[in-house]
Amino acid sequence: MQDVGLKAKNLSVFYGEKQAVKDISLDFNARQVTALIGPSGCGKSTFLRSLNRMNDLIPGAKITGEVWIGDQNILSPRTDVVLLRQKIGMVWQRPNPFHKSIYENIAFGPRYHGIRDKKKLDEIVEQSLRKAALWEETKDRLHKSALALSGGQQQRLCIARSIAVRPDIILMDEPASALDPVSTAKIEELIAELKQEYCIIIVTHNMHQAARVSDRTAFFLMGELVEFDQTDKMFTNPANQQTSDYISGRFG
Length: 252
Ligand SMILES: Nc1ncnc2c1ncn2[C@@H]1O[C@H](COP(=O)(O)OP(=O)(O)OP(=O)(O)O)[C@@H](O)[C@H]1O
Description:
Layout: E1 6-15, E2 18-28, E3 33-37, H1 44-50, E4 61-69, E5 72-73, H2 81-87, E6 88-91, H3 102-112, H4 118-131, H5 135-138, H6 151-163, E7 169-173, H7 181-194, E8 199-203, H8 207-213, E9 216-221, E10 224-230, H9 231-236, H10 241-247
Helix pairs in contact: 3-4, 3-6, 4-6, 6-7
Membrane topology: Peripheral membrane protein
Keywords: ATP-binding, Cell membrane, Membrane, Nucleotide-binding, Phosphate transport, Translocase, Transport
Protein name: Phosphate ABC transporter ATP-binding protein
């Protein structure tokens, strides 16, 4: 079982002249869910994307600070970004399966990382779909298009796809915001299952969801980290008035 967490130290992110994330230090524990909350535009997604260097893909974006996994600072120019994204998977707001079969969606990553053996790939596909609570619904249609799945199933497929390359950490950017309540509940159950093995960091706008799924919560405001604590404490007795106002719906 992995024991890998993540530490961000003095992380700042700029888009041109604009600073979207301001000197944030945060630790994320293995086998815990950490929720990032805050009003629109406060820098949650930018911060999240920095943790596996997805911001590298945005022209004009600049990151300073450090992000440590064990003894590796992943912001170092020496980091192999492909390997990094194997270790730190990402699930987006909208399910984005490849235009391929269910099987090929899952097998793509392991194959890319060198696994060719059909039996091994079959095993990975089954295990990943089982872990994403999607095996029973898909085992008889593995070679059918992933696009024929419902939105909720597609999102679980995307989670299965990220698990298939054996990450240590899974980043989720509002993974249920495009889904109906039943699919949302399934994703939340899945997050609770997955945290037994992974470090999960989730951006959510939904306060109830943050309270239900996370162990710790970080509240962001205008690019700054206002408060970070155990979720129970944050939602019942926050230390900061702005956190309290946001959580109780007085702004945001
Ligand atoms: N690609 C980009 N180029 C320029 N500015 C950006 C880019 N992405 C985000 N920003 C700006 O950075 C700030 C933080 O945005 P970000 O999307 O990280 O916030 P957020 O808290 O995740 O918002 P939301 O909850 O609406 O997704 C905002 O002012 C936004 O306009």
